C-alpha cells in the first residue's frame, strides 16, 4: 500500500465519518433534547428511530427547492456550499490516531500534519463566515440579513478570544502542530505523568469551549438563527438540501470543534496507561482512536446538554461577554502563562 | 522558599504595587486601607531587605554581590541596558535605610496626614518615591540609576508642591525641580561619556574597566560631571538653595526625602563610583572643597534661622557637606557611616519638629515657641536625643561618625580638620539654640494655640521612639577600632572600596592621637553647649522679630548671604534679558518675518494653484498615477 | 359602596357641574351619572385631578347604540384605586353624527378604546391622534355594532352552504 | 517539498506588476468608494507577494516581516476607512466618490 | 519542476483573472468575492514560496477579517449594481490608458533584471520560529508601533462609527 | 405609588451576587436538572399504539342513540339546534309512517340530521338540551380529512349502529340511571 | 465641468436610513396573530406600530344574538389560556344581574377552578418567556403540568382548552372523585416542577441580563395605560380585583399580592411566578375549607332541571324547553362585574333590556387595553428585547381581538 493510497483512503474515511457523525448528531440532538424534556424523540424510523437521519436526508432531497425570486441565484447556492466545504476542510489537520503499522510501514492516522495546524484551523473557520453571510444576504430577507450580520459579527468577535486562549496553550506546548500538541499529552497517568492540557490550562479551556459554542452558533450563542426572534435567521429562506447543507455543516462544525477540544485539551487519542498495557502498537492506535471518538462524542453531548438547558444571550450582551469578558480573561491567562513559563525557565 | 533572585526583584515591586493600587483607586479607598497598603508594602520591602541583608552576611565577603537580571530593556546596536538589580553591601545598607526609615515615616504620616484631603495622594507619592529610590540604589547600571534619580526628583517635586494651592509652595517645587535638572544634565552627560568611554553602562563592566585602565582626563571629566549631578541632588554649593525651600512640603516628606534618603543619593553615587574618583585626584579635591565650603556655609546660615524646619534643612546641607568632605578624603566608608547615622537622627529631628508643628497647629517659627517641654514630653525627649546625636555627644550615633570624619580630616591636614571642627561646633551651637528656644524658657506661643497644644498620636510618637533608639545605638555599627575590636561597618563595606584603597595612600592615626582628638572635640562641644545654654536659657535671648535690631552680619546670615538674590541677579536677570532681546529682534523680525513671508508667498501662489483643485477625487488619483508613471519613466529613460 | 361616600362624590360633582348633569342612578351599587356631552372631558379632568375624587384609572370605555332614540351613548367607567370606588359616566350623542372630544389627553389607555368605539359605532373622537379602525378592515363602510346591522337569525334555514352553513 | 522549486524571481515581478496595475486600473475606473478601497487592498497585496518572493530569494525573513506589518497597517486602514465610508454613506446616501468634491477648500 | 511551474501558472492565472473581475464586475458583492479568490490565489503563492505561516495569517487576516468587514459594510449599506453611477466613457478610456502606461513603465523597468531562481531555502525563513525571532528581535520597535497603530485605528473607527445623536443625547 | 392593600410583597430581587455574576453556578445547577430528567420517566404517549385515558364525560364526537329495541330516539324537536351556539346542527323533521315503529321511537323523527363538525365547538350544550336522551357526546375523536365536505356528518355517521352500540351510561347521572330501572318507565329504554 | 454643478444634495442627518421589519402577523414570537411594524436602526427599535384585529370575531355583536347561556362558549375563546375564569366571570355577571345567592360550596369550587386556570395562564406565559430567551426545556417541563390541569378540567366538564365550564348558577355536575384525586395529585407534583423551573431560570445571569430592565414601565404610565393584573403589579401597584373587590368568597382566603419594582420583564416573570405559588396555596385552602352543599344555586329559570325530571315530568320538560329556547325573563338593568383574569381585570359590562339576549355586552379585555403600551415600551430597545417584552406581557390574541 502506498502512502498516497493510504491518504486517499484516510481522506475518504474522514469525509464519511464527518458526514456520518453530523447525520447522527442531528438524531442525537433530537434524542437528547427529547430525553431531557421527558419526551421520547424520533422513534418511528427503525428501532429507536435510528434510521431517522436517513429519512430526514431523504426528505430534504425530495423537498421542493425554493429559490426566492429576488435573490441572487448564484450566491444563494454558493452560501450553503461554502459553509459545508469549510466545515469539512477542518478535519484535515486533526490527528485521528497514532501510527498504524501495515505491512511493516508506519502510517499516521492524520491526513496531513501541517506545522501550523492551529492556524490552518483558524484560517478555515474564518472562511466559514462567508457561507453564512453570503447565504443570508442573497436571501434578500431582512430576518436573514439580520441573522447573517449577527453571525458574522459574533464569529469574528469570538475568534479573537478563541485565538488568544489557544495562544496560551501554544506557549505552553511550544508548537502549532495539532499532532505535536496531542503527543505532548501522551502517557498520562502511569506513564510519564504528562497530564491533559486541561489540567494546566483550565481557564484557556473554559474560554475555548465558550468560544466554540459561539463559533458553532450553538446555544446560548445561537442568535443568528434563533427562531423566536429571527424566524430562522440566515437560513430562513432556504429549503430542501440547501437548508440541509446549512444544518449539516453546523453539526460537522460541532463535531470538528469537539475533536479539536479533545485533541488540544483532553489528550486526543491518548489515554491513561496506554503504554503500560503491553499491547501492540496497532491495538493501541485503534483503542486510541476509539478513545478520541469517545471524547468527541462526550463533547457533542455536552454541546447539546448546554443547548437544552440555558437561555441565550442578547446581541449586545454577547458582544460584551466576548470583548469585555472573555478577551481580557484570555489576555490575563496569556500573561499568567507567560509569567509561569518565564519563572519556570529561570528557576 | 523563593529564591534570592526573586526576592531581590520583589523589593521594589511592593512599593510599586502599593503605588498603583492607591493611585488607581485614590477616590475609592478609605484612608485606613490606603495607610495600611502604603505602609504595609514598605514594611514587606523592609522585611525582604532584612532577609537579603542576612543572606549577604552569610556569604563570603568576596561573593557579596548578587545581580539579578529581569529582562533586557533596551537593545539597540551596541547599546544595551537591562532591568537588573545589584545587591551588594552598599545597596543592601541603602535598602535597609530606605525601607526602614521609610516605613517609620509612613507610619508617622498616618497620624500626620490624617486630616489632609490629599491623604491618599500623599501615600501614593510616598510609595512611588520609595519605589524610585529603591530603583536608584538597586539598579545595576547607570541608566537604571538615572531612572531612579529622575523618579525621586519627580516625587520630590510632587511632594514639595503637595499643597499646590499655595503659590509659594509651587514655586519652591519648581525651584527644586529646576535646580535638580541642572545637576541631572551633568549626570546624563556623564553617563553618555561613560558609555562612550567604556562601551557599557553596567557598573560591573565600567568599574572593573576603569580600575584596570587607570586615570585619565576623560575620567576626571566624567567624575566631575557625575559630581555635578550629586551636587544637585545632595544640595551642595552652588546648587543647594532648593533644599531649604523644599521644606514647603509636608514634614514627613522633609524627613524622608530631604534628610534621610534622596539627598544622600549623591553620596551613594559617589561611593558607588569610588574607583573612578580615586583615579582622578582632581575630582577628589573638588569634592573636598565643595564639601567643606558647603558645610561651613550652611552651618553659619543655620545659626540665624528662625524657622524650625529651615534650621534643620540648613543643618542637613551642612551635614551633607561633611559627608562629601569624608568622600573627598577618600574615606568612603566613613561617608556612608555618617550618612547612615545622619539618616536616623535627622529623620528623628524632622519628625520631632513635625510633631511640634502638629502640636502647635502649624506654627513653625521658633520665636513663637518655647517652654514646650511640658506640653510635648515625648517629643521633647526624642528631640533631645536627636540633638545630642547630631552634636556628637558620646555614645550617641553622631559621635562616632562625626568623630571618624574628623579623624580622617586630621590625617589629611590640620586646615581641613579645623574647618570641619568649626562646622561641627557651629552645628552644636545652632542645634542647642533650637532646642532651648523651642522647649525651654517661657511659652511664647499665642494663648489659644497653646491651649490646644497636645502630644501627637501614637502613630506619630512610636516611629519617633523607634528612630530615637536608632539614634542612640546606630553609632555602634561603626564602632571605632580605637576602643578595641574592629569596625563592623567598614568591614562590611570593605569589598566595595577595596580597589580604591589600593590606590589611596595609607594614612594611619595613632590611637593616642585619635583619643586626644576625641577628647578635645567633646570638650569643645560641651563648652559650646554651655555657651548656648547661657545665651538662650539663662539670658533668655530670643531672636528679634524685627530685622533692624540685628547686626549686619546677622542680617546677612539671616538672609542666607543673599545667595538667592545673587542668583537672581547674576543668572536669572541676564537670562530674562537675553530672552527678551531674542524675542524682540530675532523672533519678531527674523524668524517671524521669514515665516510670514513664506506663508504669504504660499497664500499668494495658492490663490492660483487652487484652481487645480476640482475637488474630484477621481481626478486627483488620476493625476497621481500620471505622476508615478512620469517618475518611473524618468527613472527608466534618463 | 356606602351611600355616604357616593353622596359625597355626587355633591362634589354637583357643585361644579350642576348644569351638566342629566341623570344620576346607582344600578347594582355602581354610581352612574349621565352628563350632557359638551363638557365631558372637562368633567373627567375634574374628577381625575380633584383631591377627593381622584378617579385616575380608566377601567373601560365603550359605546351603546339605542336605535329607538337614535342615540349613541358613550360610557366611561373610572376607578379610584385608593378608595376603591368606581364611577360610570355616560353621555348621549346623536346617532347621525356622533362626535365627542378625545380622552387620550388624560388617559393613554383611551387611545385604543376610542378607536374601537369608532370602529364599532362610528363615534368620532375629535383630537384623537390616530383615529382609524382597529379591529375591522380599514375599508369597511359601516359600523357593525349599531343595531341596524343585525346578525342573521339563528333559526333561519334557508341558508345551506355546504361549507359554512348548517 | 522537493517538488517545489525553481520559479524564476522575475515571474513574480511580472505577476505582481500585473496585479498592481489592475489595482490602479480599478482605482481609476470605478466610482464606488468601496471598490476603490478594495483595489487599494489589491495593490498592497501585489507588493506583499513581491516581498515574500524576495524574502524567499534572499532567505531573509525581513521581507516576510514587512508583509506582516503591511497586513497590520491594512487592517487599521480598512477599519478607519470603512468607518469613514459608513459616515459618508450616512450623510450622503451614496458611496460615489465623486460626491466628495467639497473637499477642495 | 513542472508541477511547481504548472501550479504557479494556474495560481497566477486565477489571481490575475479574478483581480480583473474585481474591477470589472458591476455588483460590489461580486467584487468582494472575486477579491477573496484573488487573495486565496496569493495565499497559494505564499505556500509555493514556502511561507506557510504567512499564508495562514494572510487568509485569516485578509479573507477572515478584512473582506468580511467589506462584505459587512456592503450588506449594511445594501449596495448593488444600480447604485453605482458610471463614469463617462472618456474617463474610462483615460483610466485604461494611464493604467496601461503604468504597466508598460513597470514592465520596462523590470525587463532589465536578470533571471533569478527562487529556491526553497535550506533555512526555513517562513517558519513561525524564524518569523518570531526576526519580528521580536530586529523589528521589535516597529512591531510595538504597529500595535499602537492598530489601537489608534480601532479607537478612530469606533469614534467615526459612533452615532452622533447618541453623543448628543449623552451630553 | 403607595400600597393599596396590606397584602403586597415585593418578589423580584435584581441584585446579583458575585457567584451569580460569573454565570457558571447557575449553568451548572441547570445542567444538573436537565441531566436528571434524562433518566426520568417519559411523559410521551405513543399515540397510535397507546391512547391517553379520556375522562368519562369527555366531549368528543356526537352519537345519536337508539333505544333498547334499536329505534332512533331523536324526535326532531330542534332544541339541540337552538341551543347550539355555533349553529352547527341542521335537521329536517318527518312524520313516522306506518311500519317504521321499529326504526323511530316517536311519531316525528329527524329525516335529515347533520352536524357540521368544522363549526362544532364541542361545547356539549346539545347534549344538555336534548330531552329525549337522543344525542350524546362521546370520547370518540372526529378524524381529520382533506376536504371540507366530508366534515358534514349526516345520520350515517352519527346514528349508532344497531350491532355496535355506544355506551354512554357513564355520562349519565346516577339518578337518571336509577330512574331508568323503574318498571313503569321501561318504554323509555 | 464646473464644480458648482456637481455639488450633491446632502441628506439631512435626521433622515437617517431606517429599515422596517414586520414582526408578525405570523412570526414565531407573536403567540397568536397580530402584527408589529418596527422601524429599526440596526437592531434598535426606533418606532413601532401595532396592527391588531386579525382574529376579530365580533363577540360583542354575537352576544347580542345569543341567549345568556350560549355566551359562555364565546367567552372561552377570549383568553383561551384561562378559559374557565372567563366562563365563571360571565356566569357571575349574569348571577349578579339576576341577584342570585350562590352556595358557598359552588363559590369554593369556582375558586379552585379559577386558580387552576390562573396557574395555567401564568405557566404558559412564563414558560414562553423561557422559550423566547432560548431555554426550551423549562417550557416542556411546565407544559406537562398544564396537561395535568387540563385533565382536571376534562374530569370536571369534559373539555380541555375551551371549556364551557359551569352553568349560570353553579356547575352542571359535582366534581367526580377522580377530579378531586387529580387536583390533589397536581397540588403535590406541581410545586416540585415549579421549583425546578425557577432553578433553571430565576437566578441565571443570562436570563436576568436578558430580562432585567427590558420593557420596563413606570407605575404612573402603567396606570395611565390602564394596566391591570400581573403587568400592573410588576410595576409596583398592588391592584388585584380578588383583594379589592372580592367575589366568589375570595375574602375567605389568605394570600398575598406579589408586586415588582420597575415593571420590567423580570418583574413580570417573578410576579407571575409568585402568583402561581399563591394560587396553589389558595386551592389548598379552598379544598381544606370546602363546605358541603349543592353544586348549583336555586335558579329554576336558568339552571336546567335534572334530566330524570325532564324525561318524566311535564312541568320540568316545559321549563327545560323554556330555558333552552332562552325564553325566561331577566330583569332590566346595567351591570358591571369584574374578575381577576389571567392578565388582569376582566370586566363584563352587561346591559339587559329584559329580552332573551343582552342588549349590549362589552368585555373589558385586559390584553386589549394594555397592549397599546407595547409601542411605547419597546421604543429604543433591541429586537430581542421587543420579543421578550411581548411574551412577558402575555398578549393573548383571542382576548386582544375579541
Give me some keywords for this one.
heteroheptamer; B: 638 residues; mainly alpha; 3% strand; F: 189 residues; alpha+beta; 14% strand
How does this structure look, described?
The structure holds seven protein chains of seven kinds. With 347 residues, chain A is an all-alpha fold. Chain A has twelve helices and two strands. Chain A has a two-stranded antiparallel ribbon. The longest helix of chain A has 34 residues, at 3-36. The relative contact order of chain A is 0.14. Chain D has a single domain (3-97), classed as Helix Hairpins (Orthogonal Bundle). In chain D, helix 1 packs antiparallel against helix 2 (33-58) and helix 2 (33-58) runs antiparallel to helix 3 (62-92). The longest helix of chain D has 31 residues, at 62-92. The mean pLDDT of chain D is 79. In chain G, the strands form two sheets. In chain G, strands 1-2-3 form a three-stranded antiparallel beta sheet. In chain G, helix 3 (83-98) packs antiparallel against helix 4 (104-133) and helix 11 (265-289) packs parallel to helix 16 (383-393). Chain G starts with 18 loop residues before the first strand and ends with a helix. Chain G is globular. By secondary structure, chain G is mainly alpha-helical. Chains in contact: A-B, A-E, A-F, A-G, B-D, B-E, B-G, C-F, C-G, D-E, D-G, F-G. Chain B binds chain E through residues 618, 622, 625-626, 628-629, 632-633, 635-636, and chain E through 87, 91, 94-95, 98-99, 101-102, 105-106, 108-109.
Write the topology of this structure.
The complex is a heteroheptamer.
Chain B: H1 4-24, H2 31-58, E1 66-76, E2 79-87, H3 89-112, H4 119-138, H5 142-160, H6 167-198, H7 203-213, H8 217-233, H9 242-245, H10 251-260, H11 265-272, H12 274-279, H13 281-304, H14 308-328, H15 332-359, H16 377-391, H17 397-412, H18 414-439, H19 447-452, H20 458-473, H21 488-503, H22 511-538, H23 552-558, H24 563-609, H25 617-637
Antiparallel strand pairs in B: 1-2
Chain C: H1 3-17, E1 21-25, E2 31-35, H2 40-49, E3 57-66, E4 71-80, E5 85-94, E6 99-101, H3 110-121, E7 124-126
Parallel strand pairs in C: 2-5, 6-7
Antiparallel strand pairs in C: 1-2, 3-4, 4-5
Chain F: E1 8-10, H1 18-21, H2 24-38, E2 62-64, H3 79-83, E3 89-95, E4 108-116, H4 125-129, E5 135-137, E6 152-153, H5 155-158, H6 174-181
Antiparallel strand pairs in F: 2-5, 3-4, 4-6
Amino acid at each position: 500500500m502506498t502512502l498516497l493510497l493510504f491518504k486517499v483512503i484516510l481522506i475518504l474515511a474522514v469525509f464519511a465519518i464527518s458526514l456520518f457523525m453530523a447525520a447522527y448528531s442531528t438524531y442525537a440532538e433530537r434524542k437528547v433534547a427529547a430525553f431531557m424534556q421527558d419526551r421520547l424523540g424520533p422513534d418511528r424510523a427503525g428501532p429507536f428511530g435510528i434510521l431517522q437521519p436517513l429519512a430526514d436526508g431523504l426528505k430534504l432531497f425530495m423537498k421542493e427547492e425554493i429559490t426566492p425570486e429576488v435573490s441572487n441565484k448564484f450566491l444563494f447556492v454558493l452560501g450553503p456550499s461554502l459553509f459545508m466545504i469549510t466545515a469539512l476542510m477542518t478535519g484535515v489537520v486533526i490527528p485521528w490516531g497514532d501510527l498504524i503499522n501495515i505491512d511493516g510501514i508506519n502510517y499516521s492516522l492524520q491526513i496531513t500534519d501541517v506545522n501550523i495546524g492551529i492556524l490552518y484551523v483558524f484560517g478555515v473557520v474564518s472562511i466559514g463566515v462567508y457561507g453564512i453571510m453570503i447565504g443570508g444576504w442573497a436571501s434578500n430577507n431582512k430576518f436573514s440579513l439580520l441573522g447573517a450580520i449577527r453571525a458574522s459579527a459574533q464569529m469574528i468577535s469570538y475568534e479573537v478570544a478563541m485565538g488568544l486562549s489557544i495562544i496560551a496553550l501554544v506557549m505552553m506546548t511550544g508548537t502549532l502542530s495539532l499532532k505535536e500538541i496531542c503527543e505532548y499529552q501522551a502517557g498520562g497517568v502511569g506513564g510519564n505523568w504528562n497530564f491533559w492540557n486541561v489540567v494546566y490550562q483550565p481557564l484557556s479551556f473554559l474560554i475555548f469551549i465558550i468560544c466554540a459554542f459561539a463559533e458553532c452558533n450553538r446555544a446560548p450563542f445561537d442568535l443568528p438563527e434563533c427562531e423566536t426572534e429571527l424566524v430562522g435567521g440566515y437560513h430562513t429562506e432556504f429549503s430542501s438540501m440547501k437548508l440541509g447543507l446549512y444544518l449539516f455543516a453546523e453539526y460537522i462544525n460541532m463535531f470538528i470543534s469537539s475533536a479539536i477540544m479533545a485533541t488540544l485539551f483532553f489528550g486526543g487519542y491518548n489515554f491513561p496507561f496506554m503504554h503500560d498495557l503491553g499491547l501492540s502498537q496497532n491495538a493501541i492506535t485503534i483503542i486510541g482512536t476509539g478513545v478520541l471518538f469517545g471524547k468527541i462524542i462526550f463533547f457533542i453531548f455536552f454541546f447539546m446538554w448546554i443547548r437544552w438547558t440555558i437561555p441565550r444571550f442578547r446581541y449586545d450582551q454577547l458582544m460584551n461577554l466576548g470583548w469585555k469578558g472573555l478577551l481580557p480573561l484570555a489576555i490575563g491567562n496569556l500573561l499568567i502563562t507567560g509569567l509561569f513559563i518565564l519563572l519556570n525557565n529561570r528557576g | 522558599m523563593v529564591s534570592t533572585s526573586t526576592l531581590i526583584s520583589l523589593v521594589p515591586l511592593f512599593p510599586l504595587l502599593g503605588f498603583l493600587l492607591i493611585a488607581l483607586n485614590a477616590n475609592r479607598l478609605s484612608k485606613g486601607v490606603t495607610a495600611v497598603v502604603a505602609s504595609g508594602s514598605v514594611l514587606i520591602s523592609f522585611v525582604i531587605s532584612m532577609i537579603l541583608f542576612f543572606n549577604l552576611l552569610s556569604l563570603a565577603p568576596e561573593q557579596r554581590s548578587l545581580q539579578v537580571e529581569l529582562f533586557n530593556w533596551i537593545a539597540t546596536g551596541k547599546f544595551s541596558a537591562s532591568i537588573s538589580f545589584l545587591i551588594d553591601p552598599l545597596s543592601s545598607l541603602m535598602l535597609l535605610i530606605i525601607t526602614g526609615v521609610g516605613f517609620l515615616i509612613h507610619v508617622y504620616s498616618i497620624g500626620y496626614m490624617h486630616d489632609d484631603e490629599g491623604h491618599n495622594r500623599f501615600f501614593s507619592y510616598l510609595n512611588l518615591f520609595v519605589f524610585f529610590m529603591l530603583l536608584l540604589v538597586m539598579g545595576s547600571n547607570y541608566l537604571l540609576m538615572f531612572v531612579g534619580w529622575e523618579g525621586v526628583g519627580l516625587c520630590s517635586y510632587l511632594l514639595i508642591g503637595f499643597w499646590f494651592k499655595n503659590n509659594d509652595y509651587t514655586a519652591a517645587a519648581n525651584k527644586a525641580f529646576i535646580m535638580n535638572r541642572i545637576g541631572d544634565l551633568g549626570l546624563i552627560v556623564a553617563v553618555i561619556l561613560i558609555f562612550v568611554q567604556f562601551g557599557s553602562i553596567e557598573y560591573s563592566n565600567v568599574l572593573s574597566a576603569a580600575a584596570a585602565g587607570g586615570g585619565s582626563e576623560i575620567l576626571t571629566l566624567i567624575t566631575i560631571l557625575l559630581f555635578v549631578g550629586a551636587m544637585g541632588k545632595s544640595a551642595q554649593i552652588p546648587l543647594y538653595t532648593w533644599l531649604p525651600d523644599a521644606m514647603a512640603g509636608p514634614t514627613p516628606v522633609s524627613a524622608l526625602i530631604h534628610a534621610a534618603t534622596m539627598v544622600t543619593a549623591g553620596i551613594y553615587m559617589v561611593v558607588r563610583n569610588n574607583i573612578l574618583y580615586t583615579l582622578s585626584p582632581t575630582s577628589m579635591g573638588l569634592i573636598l572643597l565643595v564639601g567643606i565650603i558647603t558645610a561651613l556655609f550652611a552651618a553659619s546660615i543655620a545659626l540665624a534661622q528662625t524657622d524650625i524646619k529651615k534650621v534643620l534643612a540648613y543643618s542637613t546641607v551642612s551635614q551633607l557637606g561633611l559627608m562629601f568632605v569624608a568622600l573627598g578624603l577618600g574615606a568612603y566608608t566613613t561617608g556612608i557611616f555618617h550618612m547612615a547615622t545622619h539618616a536616623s537622627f535627622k529623620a528623628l529631628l524632622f519628625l520631632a519638629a513635625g510633631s511640634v508643628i502638629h502640636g502647635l497647629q502649624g506654627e513653625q517659627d521658633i520665636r513663637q515657641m518655647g517652654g514646650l517641654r511640658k506640653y510635648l514630653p515625648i517629643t521633647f525627649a526624642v528631640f533631645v536625643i536627636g540633638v545630642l546625636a547630631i552634636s556628637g555627644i558620646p555614645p550617641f550615633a553622631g559621635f562616632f561618625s562625626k568623630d571618624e570624619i574628623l579623624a580622617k580630616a586630621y590625617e589629611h591636614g590640620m586646615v581641613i580638620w579645623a574647618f570641619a571642627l568649626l562646622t561641627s561646633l557651629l552645628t552644636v551651637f545652632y542645634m542647642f539654640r533650637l532646642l532651648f528656644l523651642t522647649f525651654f524658657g517661657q511659652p511664647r506661643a499665642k494663648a489659644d494655640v497653646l491651649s490646644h497644644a497636645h502630644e501627637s498620636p501614637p502613630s506619630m510618637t512610636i516611629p519617633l521612639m523607634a528612630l530615637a533608639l536608632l539614634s542612640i545605638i546606630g553609632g555602634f555599627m561603626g564602632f571605632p577600632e580605637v576602643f578595641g575590636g574592629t569596625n563592623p561597618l567598614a568591614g562590611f563595606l570593605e569589598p566595595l572600596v577595596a580597589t580604591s584603597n589600593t590606590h589611596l595612600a595609607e594614612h594611619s592615626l595613632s590611637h593616642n592621637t585619635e583619643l586626644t582628638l576625641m577628647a578635645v572635640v567633646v570638650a569643645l562641644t560641651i563648652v559650646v553647649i554651655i555657651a548656648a545654654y547661657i545665651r538662650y536659657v539663662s539670658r533668655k535671648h530670643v531672636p528679634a522679630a524685627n530685622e533692624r535690631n540685628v547686626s549686619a552680619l546677622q542680617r546677612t546670615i539671616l538672609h542666607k548671604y543673599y545667595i538667592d538674590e545673587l542668583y537672581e541677579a547674576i543668572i536669572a536677570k541676564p537670562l530674562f534679558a537675553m530672552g527678551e532681546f531674542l524675542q524682540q529682534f530675532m523672533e519678531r523680525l527674523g524668524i517671524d518675518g521669514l515665516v510670514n513671508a513664506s506663508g504669504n508667498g504660499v497664500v499668494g501662489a495658492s490663490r492660483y494653484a487652487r484652481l487645480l483643485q476640482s475637488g474630484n477625487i477621481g481626478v486627483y488619483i488620476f493625476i497621481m498615477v500620471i505622476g508615478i508613471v512620469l517618475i518611473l519613466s524618468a527613472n527608466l529613460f534618463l | 359602596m356606602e351611600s355616604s361616600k357616593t353622596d359625597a362624590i355626587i355633591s362634589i360633582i354637583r357643585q361644579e357641574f350642576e348644569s351638566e348633569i342629566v341623570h344620576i342612578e346607582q344600578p347594582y351599587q355602581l354610581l352612574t351619572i349621565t352628563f350632557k356631552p359638551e363638557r365631558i372631558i372637562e368633567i373627567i379632568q375634574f374628577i381625575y385631578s380633584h383631591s377627593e375624587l381622584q378617579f385616575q384609572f380608566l377601567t373601560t370605555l365603550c359605546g351603546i347604540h339605542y336605535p329607538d332614540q337614535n342615540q349613541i351613548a358613550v360610557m366611561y367607567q373610572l376607578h379610584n384605586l385608593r378608595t376603591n370606588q368606581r364611577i360610570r359616566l355616560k353621555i348621549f350623542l346623536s346617532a347621525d353624527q356622533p362626535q365627542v372630544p378625545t380622552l387620550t389627553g388624560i388617559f393613554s389607555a383611551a387611545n385604543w378604546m376610542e378607536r374601537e368605539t369608532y370602529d364599532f359605532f362610528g363615534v368620532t373622537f375629535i383630537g384623537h391622534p390616530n383615529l382609524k379602525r382597529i379591529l375591522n378592515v380599514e375599508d369597511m363602510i359601516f359600523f357593525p355594532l349599531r343595531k341596524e346591522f343585525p346578525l342573521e337569525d339563528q333559526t333561519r334555514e334557508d341558508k345551506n352552504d355546504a361549507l359554512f352553513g348548517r | 517539498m522537493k517538488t517545489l522549486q525553481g520559479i524564476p524571481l522575475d515571474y513574480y515581478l511580472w505577476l505582481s506588476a500585473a496585479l498592481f496595475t489592475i489595482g490602479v486600473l480599478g482605482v481609476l475606473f470605478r466610482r464606488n468608494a468601496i471598490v476603490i478601497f478594495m483595489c487599494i487592498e489589491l495593490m498592497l497585496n501585489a507588493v506583499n507577494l513581491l516581498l515574500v518572493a524576495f524574502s524567499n530569494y534572499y532567505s531573509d525573513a525581513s521581507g516576510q516581516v514587512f508583509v506582516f506589518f503591511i497586513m497590520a497597517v491594512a487592517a487599521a486602514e480598512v477599519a478607519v476607512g470603512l468607518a469613514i465610508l459608513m459616515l459618508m454613506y450616512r450623510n450622503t446616501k451614496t458611496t460615489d466618490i465623486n460626491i466628495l468634491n467639497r473637499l477642495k477648500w | 519542476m513542472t508541477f511547481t511551474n504548472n501550479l504557479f501558472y494556474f495560481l497566477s492565472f486565477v489571481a490575475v483573472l479574478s483581480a480583473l473581475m474585481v474591477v470589472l464586475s458591476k455588483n460590489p458583492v461580486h467584487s468582494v468575492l472575486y477579491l477573496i479568490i484573488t487573495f486565496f490565489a496569493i495565499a497559494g503563492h505564499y505556500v509555493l514560496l514556502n511561507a506557510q505561516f504567512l499564508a495562514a495569517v494572510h487568509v485569516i487576516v485578509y479573507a477572515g477579517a478584512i473582506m468580511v468587514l467589506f462584505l459587512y459594510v456592503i450588506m449594511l449599506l445594501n449596495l448593488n449594481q444600480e447604485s453605482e453611477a458610471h463614469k463617462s466613457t472618456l474617463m474610462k478610456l483615460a483610466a485604461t490608458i494611464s493604467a496601461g502606461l503604468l504597466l508598460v513603465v513597470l514592465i520596462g523597468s523590470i525587463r532589465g533584471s536578470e533571471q533569478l531562481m527562487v529556491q526553497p531555502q535550506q533555512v526555513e525563513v517562513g517558519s513561525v520560529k524564524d518569523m518570531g525571532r526576526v519580528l521580536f528581535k530586529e523589528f521589535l520597535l516597529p512591531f510595538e508601533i504597529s500595535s499602537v497603530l492598530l489601537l489608534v485605528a480601532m479607537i478612530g473607527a469606533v469614534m467615526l462609527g459612533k452615532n452622533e445623536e447618541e453623543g448628543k443625547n449623552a451630553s | 405609588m403607595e400600597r393599596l392593600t396590606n397584602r403586597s410583597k415585593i418578589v423580584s430581587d435584581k441584585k446579583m451576587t458575585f457567584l451569580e455574576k460569573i454565570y457558571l453556578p447557575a449553568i451548572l445547577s441547570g445542567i444538573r436538572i436537565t441531566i436528571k430528567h434524562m433518566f426520568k420517566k417519559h411523559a410521551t404517549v405513543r399515540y397510535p399504539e397507546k391512547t391517553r385515558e379520556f375522562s368519562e364525560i369527555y366531549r368528543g364526537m356526537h352519537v345519536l342513540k337508539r333505544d333498547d329495541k334499536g329505534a332512533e330516539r331523536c324526535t326532531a324537536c330542534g332544541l339541540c339546534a337552538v341551543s347550539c351556539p355555533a349553529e352547527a346542527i341542521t335537521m329536517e323533521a318527518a312524520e313516522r309512517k306506518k311500519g317504521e315503529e321499529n326504526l323511530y321511537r316517536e311519531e316525528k323523527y329527524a329525516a335529515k340530521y347533520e352536524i357540521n363538525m368544522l363549526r362544532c365547538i364541542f361545547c356539549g350544550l346539545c347534549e344538555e338540551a336534548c330531552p329525549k336522551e337522543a344525542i350524546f357526546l362521546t370520547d370518540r375523536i372526529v378524524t381529520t380529512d382533506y376536504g371540507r365536505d366530508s366534515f358534514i356528518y349526516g345520520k350515517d355517521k352519527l346514528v349508532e349502529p344497531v350491532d355496535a352500540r355506544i355506551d354512554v351510561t357513564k355520562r349519565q347521572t346516577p339518578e337518571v340511571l336509577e330512574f331508568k330501572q323503574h318498571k313503569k318507565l321501561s318504554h323509555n329504554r | 465641468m464646473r464644480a458648482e454643478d456637481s455639488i450633491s444634495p446632502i441628506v439631512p442627518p435626521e433622515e437617517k436610513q431606517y429599515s422596517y421589519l414586520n414582526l408578525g402577523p405570523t412570526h414565531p414570537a407573536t403567540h397568536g396573530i397580530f402584527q408589529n411594524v418596527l422601524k429599526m436602526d440596526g437592531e434598535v427599535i426606533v418606532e413601532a406600530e401595532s396592527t391588531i384585529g386579525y382574529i376579530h370575531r365580533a363577540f360583542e355583536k354575537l352576544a347580542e344574538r345569543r341567549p345568556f347561556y350560549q355566551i359562555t362558549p364565546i367567552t372561552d375563546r377570549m383568553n383561551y389560556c384561562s378559559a374557565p375564569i372567563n366562563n365563571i366571570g360571565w356566569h357571575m355577571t349574569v348571577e349578579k344581574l339576576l341577584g342570585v345567592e350562590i352556595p358557598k360550596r359552588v363559590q369554593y369550587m369556582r375558586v379552585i377552578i379559577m386558580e387552576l386556570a390562573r396557574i395555567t395562564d401564568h405557566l404558559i406565559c412564563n414558560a414562553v418567556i423561557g422559550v423566547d430567551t432560548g431555554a426550551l426545556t423549562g417550557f416542556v417541563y411546565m407544559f406537562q403540568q398544564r396537561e395535568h390541569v387540563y385533565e382536571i378540567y376534562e374530569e370536571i366538564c369534559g373539555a380541555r382548552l375551551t371549556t364551557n365550564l359551569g352553568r349560570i348558577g353553579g356547575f352542571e355536575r359535582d366534581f367526580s372523585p377522580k377530579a378531586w384525586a387529580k387536583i390533589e395529585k397536581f397540588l403535590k407534583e406541581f410545586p416540585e416542577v415549579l421549583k425546578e423551573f425557577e432553578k433553571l431560570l430565576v437566578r441565571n445571569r443570562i436570563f436576568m441580563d436578558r430580562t432585567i430592565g427590558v420593557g420596563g414601565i413606570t407605575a404612573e404610565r402603567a396606570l395611565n395605560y390602564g394596566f391591570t393584573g400581573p403587568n400592573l403589579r410588576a410595576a409596583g401597584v398592588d391592584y388585584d380585583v380578588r383583594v379589592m373587590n372580592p367575589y366568589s368568597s375570595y375574602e375567605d382566603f389568605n394570600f398575598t399580592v406579589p408586586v415588582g419594582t420597575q415593571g420590567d420583564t423580570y418583574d413580570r416573570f417573578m410576579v407571575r411566578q409568585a402568583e402561581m405559588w399563591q394560587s396553589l396555596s389558595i386551592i389548598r385552602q379552598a379544598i381544606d375549607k370546602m363546605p358541603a352543599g349543592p353544586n348549583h344555586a336555586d335558579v329554576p329559570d336558568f339552571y336546567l332541571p335534572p334530566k330524570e325530571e325532564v324525561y318524566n315530568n311535564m312541568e320540568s320538560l316545559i321549563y327545560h324547553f323554556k330555558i333552552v329556547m332562552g325564553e325566561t325573563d331577566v330583569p332590566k338593568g346595567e351591570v358591571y362585574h369584574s374578575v381577576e383574569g389571567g392578565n388582569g381585570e376582566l370586566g363584563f359590562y352587561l346591559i339587559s333590556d329584559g329580552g332573551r339576549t343582552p342588549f349590549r355586552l362589552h368585555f373589558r379585555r385586559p390584553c386589549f387595553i394594555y397592549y397599546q403600551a407595547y409601542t411605547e415600551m419597546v421604543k429604543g430597545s433591541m429586537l430581542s428585547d421587543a420579543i421578550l417584552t411581548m411574551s412577558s406581557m402575555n398578549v393573548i390574541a383571542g382576548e386582544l381581538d375579541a
